Amino acid sequence: xxxxxxxxxxxxxxxxxxxxxxxxxxxxPNGELNYSKKSISKDEIIEIVxxxxxxxxxxxxxxxxEPLLRSDLIEIIRDIKKIKNIExxxxxxxxxxxxxxxxELKNAGLNRVNLSLDTFNKSKFKEITGVDGxxxxxxxxxxxxxxxxxxxxxxxxxxxKFNNDEIKNFINFTRxxxxxxxxxxxxxxxxxxxxxxxxxxxxxxxxxxxKDLKLYxxxxxxxxxxxxxxxxxxxxxxxxxxxxxxxxxxxxxxxEGKLKLCLHSDIEYDLLKILKSKNPxxxxxxxxxxxxxxxKLGEEKYIKKNMVKIGG
Length: 312
Description:
Layout: E1 11-15, H1 42-54, E2 59-63, H2 73-81, E3 88-93, H3 102-108, E4 112-116, H4 122-129, H5 134-146, E5 152-158, H6 167-172, E6 179-185, H7 192-195, H8 203-209, E7 214-219, E8 222-226, E9 233-237, E10 250-253, E11 258-260, E12 269-270, H9 271-275, H10 280-288
Parallel strand pairs: 1-2, 1-10, 2-3, 3-4, 4-5, 5-6, 6-9
Antiparallel strand pairs: 7-8, 8-9, 10-11, 11-12
């Protein structure tokens, strides 16, 4: 599925709930515990994925909130797995509840997970998430290795004056484990703009201090580095310092069923209405041509929603 800038859009991210058992400050600065009145149903999710699979989508990522809070998560994965042309199903999770049904999730069709982990320090973990859960998250990494759901991608948001002193620990974590640490630059949006002041740390600053990392490959929006002879990798997602819009291959759906063609745009399309139209496929093809060329973060044009309202 090509957009008007000839980018092949084959990656669909679906937020299946805004509910979350963490209150990460960059995602949900106000620490709200109750969110949207209603998330899209399982049947609506499956209908949406079927439609996009006809347009060329091959990879589906389930996000939140925390997707493991959906009681029908396994059914959702199982039904997506049956859809023609879908080659990979992944999930972004904080990992706290993952060990309860990891094997069942894998058997349903889940290929991999991305874990959110911003610190190896127990007190700082509780400070940033509001939960004392670091030990459980670290246990899950071992279980994922045993089930060979690798590479295990670990999303670490770079936060100055919070985890900048742990970057070396994260890099060294890749020496003996089949993990990909993914350092993500802090993105200003919604209510975190004020919270994030003086907390921005660029990927360039990290690479300047860690010259033992060598460029290995590029994966769409990420640049991947490795330590010599390491089992794992170190990735950088740098929307601010190294705009990657020209290689963006993804679109997002919020838990309310709104289609976002760009994370950093307030423009949304009501998919649930489109599903009921006479020719939803044609409508979607036309909408895809409106995907913007690039975001406007460099011009300090930030979106109104918090990340928890969009899907991580």
